[in-house]
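Slide 14.
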Amino acid sequence: MKDYPKVIELSKALHKAVDLKDTLAMADAFEALDNAYKEEFGDNLESYEAFHAYFVMMYAGTRYLAFNNFYESVQNNCTEIQERYDSCCKYSKFNKQQLEEIGEIVKKLDEISHSTPTKHKNLTIPRHDTRCCLCRKNPANKTGSHMVPNFLTHPTFSFDGRGKRFREALDHSFMNDLKRFCSYYGAEVPPERIELALGRQITDEDIENNINQLEYDNEFCSDCEKRFGVLESAYSAYYNRQNKTISPRVSYLFWMSVIWRMAIGRMSIFMDVEDELPLRWMLNDNILDTLNAIEASDTDLGTWKYAIFRAEGLKEGDKGILGYRKESSPYVVMYNDLVMVFYHKEPSDDELIIGPINVDRKYLNDWHQQEKETIVNRRWFWDVRDWIDETSYDYYDPAREQALLVTREGERHLDKPIPDDGKDLLIKARRLVVKPKQKVLRLRKLSRIACADFRRKEAEKRGEKYDPLADEELFLSENDFRQYYEDLAQMAQNGNLKAAQHMPFYNEARKAIPDNKAWKESTTYEPSDPEYDETLDWLLDQMHPNEIAELLFGSQESIRMNKIGRNEPCPCGSGKKYKNCCGKWS
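Slide 15: predicted structure.
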C-alpha cells in the first residue's frame, strides 16, 4: 500500500521551510521528499490519490528549486506537470472536482514558471542532489561562482587587456578540453570584436547560446561562496603585489580551493577520487568565516605541496586555462601568467620532473612557510603550454571520460569512492553507446605556424624576407615544422587533402615530404578501437544465444547486460534505480 499521505505531509514541511527561508531545513525536507518519491511512486500513476500526491509533491519541490535558483529544473518540472495534466483532462476518468483540484496546483506552477528564467546563462553540471558541493548541507543556491577566481580569469581573457569583468573573450584554444565548446563573450565586448572572431554577423542564436564558460550556477551555497571570497580577497592583494607577505595557511588554502574547484567544474583536470574527497573535507573544516580566524587556527592542513612558476613578458594570446589531463598527482595547471604543480604528498625525485617542468624541491610550498615562486620567461611558458595541449590527445577517451564524470557525481553525492567494478561496468556500458574511438587528427603548433604564415605574407607585401625560425616571438624550431608537415600528410591520408592544401606552409610540406604516396588517401584497413572491441566481446559473452540471434536477425529489445535490470540499483552507488540514473545513457 502506497503511503501518499506521507508524501503530502513531507510536501507541507518543505513549503514551511521555504516560507521561513530556512536553507538547512529546506535542503533536508527536499531530500526527504525525494526519497519518498523513490519509494512511493512507480512508472505509472494509476489512481487519483497517486496523481494528487505527485502534483502536490512537484509543487513543493518546484518552489524549493525556484527559491534556490535551479532555473532549468523548475522549467522541466512545470513542463512535465502541464503535460501530465493535459493527458489527465483527455484520457483519465477523474471527475470534474478532482480535475479542478489538480488544476489549481498546475496554475500555481505556471506562476512559478513565468517568474523564473527559462535557462541558465552560466555553466551548470548535472548532479545527483541540490546541496552545496563544499559544506554538503545548504542548498547550492549561488549563481555566478568562479572556479578559478576572477582576478586570474579576467586578465587572462580580457579582449582589451583591462582585466575587468564582462570584458572576457574566449575561444576553444584557451582551454584544452577537446570536446568542450568554450566560446563566450562578455556583455561589454563590442559586437565588432565578436564578429571578427566569428567571421560573420552575430545572430539571435549566438546571443541565446552565449553561455558564460567561467562562471557556474548551483555548485555552492551563498555562505560557502563568502568563505571562498575571504581567501580570494587576501590572495588577490598578494598576487597583485599590494601586500608583500601572506599567511602560509591562507595561501595554501587558497590554492587547494582553486585546484579542487577546477576539478569540480571539469576545468581541464580530473582528480583521483582519493585526492578530491579528502581535499573537500579539509577545505570545509578550515576555510573559516574571517581572515583572522583562518590565520589564528593551528589545525593540521594535510600533506599537499605545490610549486608556482610565474612568467614574465607574456603577450596577448599567450594565456589560458589549461590542465594536464593525467588523473592522478602531480596535477599541472595554467592560469593567467602562472604554471602550477600540485602534489598530494612529498614528491619523489622522479616526480619533480613532469614533461618540460623541473621543480626545485627548495621551491615547494606548503602551509608552514612563506610562499615562494620561480620566475620564468615566455619561451618556457610556451613550452609548457604546448606540452599540456598536446598531451591532451594522449588521454582522449570520450566513453571512459563520460562514464567517470557520471560516477564522480555519484561519489560526491555519497561522499565516498564507488567500487572499481561498478565504474568498470559503467565504462563498458558507455563504450557500447559511444561510437568506437576514432584517431584524433591534430596539427601541432598550428596557432604559431599560422601566425608565422601571416607574418611571412605581410613581409612579402613589403618586399622583405621573413624567417619563421628567427622569429623570437614564436619560438619555432625545425623539429616543430617537421612534425607539422607530418600532421598535414596524415590529414591528407585521412581523406582531407583539400583541407590540407589550404593550410599554412602546405607547399613547403610537400617539398619536405616529396613522396606522393604519403599524401594519398589511405586504403589500408585500420583496426577499430581495441577497447570497444574488447567490450563488445565481453557483452557477447554475457548474452544468451537467443539474444545474439535477435541482435543479428530480429528484435533487439531483449538485449541487456548481465546483472543490471532496469529496476535494480544503479552500480554507480547513487541509490537510484538503474533506469533513472546511469541507465539513461543507454
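Speaker note: The CA atoms of residues 537 and 570 lie 23 Å apart.
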